[in-house]
Amino acid sequence: MALTDDEVQKLEQKAEAIRETIITMLVAAGSGHTAGPLGTADIFAAFYFYILKHDPANPDWDERDRLILSNGHIVPVRYAAMAHAGYFPVEECLTLRKFGSRLQGHPERLRLPGLETTSGPLGEGLSQAAGIAYALRMDGKKNQVYVVMGDGEQDEGQVWEAAMWAGKERLANLTAVIDRNNIQIDGYTEDVMPLESLRAKYEAFNWHVLEANGHDLRAFVAAVEEAKAIYEKPVVIIAHTIPGKGVPEIEFDYHWHGKPPTKEEGKRFLKELRTLGGKLPHEYA
Amino acid sequence: MTHPDAKLSEKVFADDVERLPTRDGFGKGAIEAGKADENVVVLCADLTESTRAEWFEKEFPERFVEVGIAEQHMAALAAGMAAAGKVPFITSYAAFNPGRNYEQIRTTVALNEANVKVCGMHAGVSVGPDGATHQMLEDIGLMRMLPGMTVIAPGDAEEARKAVVAAAQHTGPVYLRFGRSATPVFTTPDTPFAIGKALLLWESEHPQVALLSTGALSHAAIKAARALAAEGVEALVLHTPTVKPLDEEAVRASAERVRLVVTVEEHQAAGGFGSAVAEFLASAHPLPIVRLGVDDRFGQSGDPDELLAQYGLDAPHIQERVHEALAAL
Predict the structure, then answer these.
(1) Most exposed among B137, B140, B146, B216, judged by the fewest C-beta atoms under 10 Å?
(2) Which value, to the nearest 10 degrees, does the dihedral of the CA atoms of residues A199, A135, B90, B219 take?
(3) Which residues of B touch A (CB under 8 A)?
């Protein structure tokens, strides 16, 4: 079922709030990744405010869908989305990466309720998601399992071990989302280690492949809905995103993969986010 | 004399003592654990027969998972299954599991406190003809450094069976180490086993030396102790299947009765069981310690017994090293 205009607008506002929080928390942390979190704000807004069956007051709820974050370095987007969804106060985001914080630089399941795994070292999330999906299926449970991966981490051999296995096991309750923003730390993915054709690779591993604009909430949600209707295979949604999305001066620039804004940059970025002629990022694009 | 509480096999020193590989104990124990708990699952990376995962597969085909030759995936997959309530045992050769997938175990199992049991078969030089690539000698070190990881090297197939059952009942990550070649079954079903507990196998009234051993070499240690007794050197043997958490009380009690501690293990002499003992005793009860293991070398092809002799880990070599060390005191 397609999103209504009201639903789209509501999700865009959530994505906007998530982006503001990301910038604010990264400035406060003084380290961390900027491009990936901003680029996936729409996807995480869609998950936490539309797609996921979850209960922020009861993070361990048995019936919840599982959202696994594989490329743990973009976790500020997840923390921001969780905070806005009510898992913890938004102010706690300012503790990101600080001593004693539940919001570790890379996410740790045991520290923060609502995280499904501990991640950061790349290429491990698809395996863990596959394990969760397989175990749930063994028990006859209907929960959906989602995993968000980066495109750079597709370089890791383990991703393809997991892809081969999930294809073999026809894990239809598993949907992977690849943040296809074409950058990694050392440069553009196609320069560092060409990934294309990503679609053909996953198809060859017996996956059903969908592609969507990762900033078009209606299109992304539609892809997730379509994925639920595929019963024979695991599904991967290649979500095309713009790294740094929402802050025009850093969009597409791989140099922003792994550094935070300074205080001054943060002020400017927030202004850029808020002065799009009253338009939301999706409309601006 | 053998300690009565250990309830050892009557044939402990006999030539016709039963010999089984400790991996057989895994096979039996996994089935027992599977019967006791329907959440127990076994994963294997294309080594189903030689790891004895096959025994579980035959009994519980729906709870056996073949992952192909993909040990890294296997570890993280198991962490995911544990997150959904399963009790996964992941099996392969120790050179690959935990050798190949150390970081996956570190992050997705240990740091994540996932209830995964890592089973490394074919550990040590006694793998034999396969040679150095397949003779894992660093696994105890790798695993015991991980916070929260329990590390067990059973002494024989019967104890291995008990260790697998105990690991399934224990909540949290466990590393279990097994060997390829058939070794003496010196314990019996009545021999006590508990995670974290060491066991006195050989006792003397006025021991000069304590042999602290782990894994199948504990049999060589008691043989050495008996030979030493015949030569007038009294010893005691503390079999320590759980390397971590170390049974500190038993290790200290043994050390306090002797002038010399000799540790015995089929592992690098650095970083493994002997190091764990030395680290503890250095502050708890300092005394001379000799660590017997593989001395900063890799293994090689050969027959298991030939290799153990070559690397100084059979009973005659242990005996010889005890004499040397006592003479040097």
Answers:
(1) B146
(2) 180
(3) 41, 62-63, 65, 67-68, 70, 72-73, 75-86, 88, 103-104, 107-108, 111-113
Residues of B within 8 A of A108 (CB-CB) are 111-112
Q: Which residues pair with B88 in a beta bridge?
A: B41
The CATH number covering residue A24 comes to: 3.40.50.970
Residue A171 domain boundaries: 5-284
**How many angstroms away from the CA of B63 is the closest CA of chain A?**
9
| Chain A residues touching B81 at Cβ < 8 A | 131-132, 134-135
How distant is the Cα of B61 from the closest Cα of chain A, in angstroms? 12
A117 in contact with B, Cβ within 8 Å: yes
Is A108 within 8 Å of chain B by CB? yes
The pLDDT value recorded for residue A285 is 46
What is the DSSP annotation of B247-265? -HHHHHHHHHT-SEEEEEE
Percent helix, strand and coil across chain B, each to the nearest 5: 40, 20, 40
Q: What is the pLDDT of residue B61?
A: 98
CATH class of B4-11+192-328: alpha beta
Record: contact A109-B112, CB cut-off 8 A: yes
| Catalytic residue IDs of B | 71
Q: What is the pLDDT of residues B183-237, one digit of tens each?
A: 999 999 999 999 999 999 999 999 999 999 999 999 999 999 999 999 999 999 9
Q: Is the pLDDT of residue A240 over 90?
A: yes
Q: Which residues of B touch A113 (CB under 8 A)?
A: none
| pLDDT exceeds cutoff 50 at A239 | yes
Q: Quick check: A277 pLDDT over 90? A: no
**Contact criterion met (CB < 8 Å) for A135 and B67:** no
Predicted pLDDT at B193:
98
pLDDT at A5 over 90: yes
- In this structure, is the dihedral angle defined by the CA atoms of residues A57, A63, A67 and A72, taken in order, positive or negative? positive
Number of structural domains (chain A) is 1
**Bridge partners of B183?**
B20
The residue ranges of every structural domain in chain B are 4-11+192-328, 19-184
CB pairs < 8 Å spanning A and B: 99
Instruction: State the alpha helices, DSSP H only, in A53-187.
Output: 75-85, 125-138, 157-168
pLDDT confidence tier of residue A276, bands split at 50, 70 and 90: low
Among residues B279, B22, B285, B26, the alpha carbon closest in space to that of B157 is found at: B22
Whole-structure pTM over 0.90, yes or no?
Answer: yes
Q: From the CA of A130, how many Å to the nearest CA of chain B? A: 6
Homologous superfamily of the B19-184 domain (CATH): Thiamin diphosphate (ThDP)-binding fold, Pyr/PP domains (3.40.50.970)
Reported as a single tens digit per residue, the pLDDT across A116-171 is 999 999 999 999 999 999 999 999 999 999 999 999 999 999 999 999 999 999 99
Q: Using alpha carbons, select from A216, A182, A214 the residue that is nearest to residue A198.
A: A182
ipTM above 0.90 for this complex:
yes
Query: In this structure, what is the dihedral angle of CA atoms B206, B211, B215, B217, given to the nearest 10 degrees?
Result: -100
Interval B256-315: pLDDT, tens:
999 999 999 999 999 999 999 999 999 999 999 999 999 999 999 999 999 999 999 999
Minimal Cβ distance to A161: which of B62, B70, B108: B70
What residue of A is the nearest CA neighbor of B66? A165
